[in-house]
Each structure stands twice: as structure tokens, then as C-alpha cells.
């Protein structure tokens, strides 16, 4: 699990076998860190993989692993799932709420821990009203689904844990993260925004307010992972950062660029302001379920939040949206290792 230049960072990536976690693991290794990945399956595309479950005390780690984690971990990244927008309350809360409490208690038992980073989602802001910056979390918002509420609870717990004496935990928020899967294979189109891609590529219409001409805060997996590494190294301390592609592609542009390699022009239909009836109509005439609640501007995020991230910023991979479309041409992966 050695990186090429040993920085002395020994990073525990909880959820590191997943899509974003794999990107973060690779970025940590490139930065010269040692990396240990925890997930229920215990697999790791890079670094050392160990089995663990955030719902169990001390992550359910075997005694020998626990001893090494305690002795060696200097940094931690929390990027565990589930991530489905359709996840139910049981799974969302047992992981993002109860699981997060267990993880935070565990981090307090790591004597060498210098900095942890929680990977949050802009969706934790739900239907926030008014302009949102890195300061706001609860604005009286309602939530579209249990995933949003789960991510809200996780960030709430992290912020509440930032008391004096506790190890510093920073928060990095992302919108939808796109780009080819760092683990290889076909991108997962089961969840979130990517669930709309097969539908669009097959030539079916989607109904969007303003024809999707609003920012959707996407970024690519590589720049997202690099920002997490910056947060570990800067370090971020107890602050909150938000990262998205500074080019700010609109939802419409994202769909057009993902479809381009297929020679398909997405059929985006103007839904007007989506009232209850138009939403129901949208569902019937072909707006994918994942997209129905995200077919209008999500909230008003102040783009100046980017400036709180120290420069130089990572550059998103050129044409990561087209690369997402091209990766979808690969045959479906049966199961991730
Ligand atoms: N992808 C995005 O667009 C995006 C955007 C913003 C924020 N995020 C956040 O980033 C994190 C990772 O997202 P992702 O897209 O990489 O999801 P993912 O591919 O589904 O990965 C989730 C990871 O969490 C692990 N995990 C799930 N339940 C666990 C448990 N009980 N104990 C230990 N590990 C567990 C999974 O491994 P096992 O199943 O083997 O346990 C996997 O390693 C999530 O917290 C998500 O909210 C993602």
C-alpha cells in the first residue's frame, strides 16, 4: 500500500471501494500517502482493502486490523453509501445517521488522527430557499427523498462533532460526480442523475423546467478526488468547502455532451414550471423517476463558494461528460469487485 513519495499520511478511506472512494484512494496514492480502504466487501482497487461495516462498533474491524488502524491512521475520509435517490428511510438512516455516529466515535479513538474529511452532497440542502453558501446547512428546507435527508443528517452530525478537543473533521460537498468509473467498466446508471442517461441515449424525451438551462453542479471524479486530497493536506480543518466544475455546465449541456458520442441529440422538452399536475404528466410521458424531482433548478447556490478552496484548483478531465457517454458503450458489469 505504498505510494510513490511517502508523505507520512496514512489515510483510512471508509467506503473506499465505491466509485468516488476508488478515485479518492487513487488520488491519495498519487499524493504519496499510504491508504487503507474499509467497506463491507473489503475489496480495494488500490491500497489495502479491509472488511468493515459502519453500522458496527469500531466498524466491526478484526482485532489485528483495529490495532494497525489505531497505531497508523493519520487521516480519514468518510465516503460511504448508500447513494440511491430511491433508498428507503431504514437504509439511509442506519448508514448516514446511526453509521455516521459510530464512525465519529471511532475517529475519536484514533490517537494519531490529524484530519478527517466527510464527503457530503449538495443534495443535503434539499429544497433550500434563498442563496446558499458553505455556511448554511439547515435553512428550514424540505427534502425530496431519504438520500437527501440521510446526507443532511450525516453533515449535521459531523458539524455537531466539531467541538474543541475532537479531531478536526472538514466537510467537502459535491453535486453529481460524473466521468468513467476509476475501477473500470461501465458507469453505474442505477442511481442519481446517471439514471437518466440510458433513457436519453435510447431517444426517449425528458421534461425539464427551462429545458434544463440551469446549473446542476456536476464535476468529474478525478477533480473531486483531488479536492479531497487538498482538504487532507491543506488542511481544511473544521471548514466546509463546495466543489463543482468551474465551467458550470447546465443540466441541458450535461445531457447533450453525454449523448454526443452516441450520435444522439437528447430530446429535452420544456416542462414549464413544474406544478403538481405537470409533474404527474412528466412521470407519465417519460421523465425518468430519478429526474422528476430534479427537473427544475435545485436551489440557489452562490458560485463564489469555490473561492474558499485554496488554489491551484484541479482541472476537471477534458471532455469528462463525453467520456461518460463513451464508457456507457461498454457492456454492463455484472458485479463490482
Ligand atoms: N457519486 C456522487 O455523485 C456523489 C456526489 C456527492 C456525494 N457523494 C457521496 O460520496 C459517497 C460515495 O459515493 P459513491 O458514488 O462512491 O457511492 P458507491 O459507489 O455506492 O460507494 C459506496 C461505498 O460505501 C461502502 N459502504 C456502503 N455501506 C457501507 C457500510 N454499512 N459500511 C461500510 N462501507 C459501506 C460501499 O462498499 P460495500 O457496499 O462493500 O460496503 C462502497 O465502498 C457517499 O457518501 C455519497 O453520498 C457521492
UniProtKB/TrEMBL annotation:
InterPro entries reported in the protein's UniProt record: Epimerase_deHydtase (IPR001509), NAD(P)-bd_dom_sf (IPR036291), NAD(P)-dependent_oxidoreduct (IPR051783)
CC annotations in GO: cytoplasm
Ranges of residues in domain NAD-dependent epimerase/dehydratase: 11-234
GO molecular function, a single term: aldehyde dehydrogenase (NAD+) activity
Pfam families: Epimerase
Protein name: Nucleoside-diphosphate-sugar epimerase
Source organism (scientific name): Amycolatopsis arida
Amino acid at each position: 500500500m505504498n505510494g510513490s513519495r511517502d508523505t507520512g499520511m496514512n489515510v483510512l478511506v471508509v467506503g473506499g471501494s465505491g466509485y468516488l472512494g476508488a478515485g479518492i484512494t487513487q488520488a491519495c496514492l498519487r499524493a504519496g500517502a499510504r491508504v487503507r480502504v474499509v467497506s463491507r466487501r473489503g475489496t480495494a482497487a488500490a491500497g489495502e482493502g479491509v472488511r468493515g461495516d459502519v453500522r458496527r462498533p469500531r466498524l466491526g474491524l478484526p482485532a489485528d486490523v483495529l490495532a494497525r488502524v489505531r497505531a497508523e491512521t493519520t487521516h480519514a475520509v468518510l465516503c460511504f453509501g448508500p447513494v440511491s435517490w430511491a433508498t428507503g428511510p431504514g437504509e439511509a438512516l442506519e448508514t448516514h445517521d446511526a453509521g455516521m455516529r459510530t464512525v465519529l466515535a471511532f475517529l475519536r479513538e484514533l490517537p494519531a488522527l490529524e484530519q478527517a474529511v466527510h464527503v457530503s452532497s449538495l443534495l443535503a440542502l434539499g429544497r433550500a430557499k434563498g442563496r446558499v453558501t458553505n455556511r448554511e446547512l439547515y435553512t428550514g428546507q424540505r427534502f425530496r427523498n431519504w438520500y437527501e435527508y440521510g446526507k443532511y443528517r450525516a453533515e449535521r452530525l459531523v458539524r455537531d462533532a466539531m467541538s474543541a478537543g475532537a479531531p478536526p473533521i472538514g466537510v467537502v460537498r459535491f453535486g453529481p460526480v460524473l466521468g468513467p468509473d476509476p475501477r473500470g467498466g461501465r458507469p453505474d446508471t442505477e442511481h442519481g442523475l446517471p439514471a437518466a442517461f440510458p433513457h436519453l441515449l435510447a431517444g426517449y424525451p425528458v421534461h425539464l423546467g427551462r429545458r434544463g438551462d440551469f446549473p446542476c453542479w456536476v464535476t468529474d471524479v478525478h477533480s473531486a478526488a483531488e479536492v479531497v486530497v487538498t482538504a487532507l493536506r491543506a488542511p481544511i480543518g473544521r471548514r466546509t468547502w463546495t466543489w463543482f466544475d468551474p465551467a458550470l455546465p447546465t443540466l441541458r449541456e450535461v445531457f447533450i455532451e453525454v449523448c454526443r458520442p452516441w450520435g444522439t441529440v437528447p430530446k429535452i422538452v420544456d416542462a414549464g414550471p413544474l406544478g403538481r399536475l405537470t409533474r404527474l404528466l412528466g412521470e407519465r410521458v417519460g421523465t425518468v423517476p430519478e429526474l422528476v424531482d430534479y427537473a427544475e433548478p435545485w436551489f440557489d447556490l452562490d458560485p463564489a463558494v469555490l473561492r474558499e478552496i485554496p488554489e491551484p484548483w484541479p482541472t476537471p478531465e477534458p471532455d469528462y461528460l463525453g467520456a461518460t457517454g463513451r464508457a456507457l458503450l461498454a457492456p454492463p458489469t455484472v458485479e463490482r469487485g
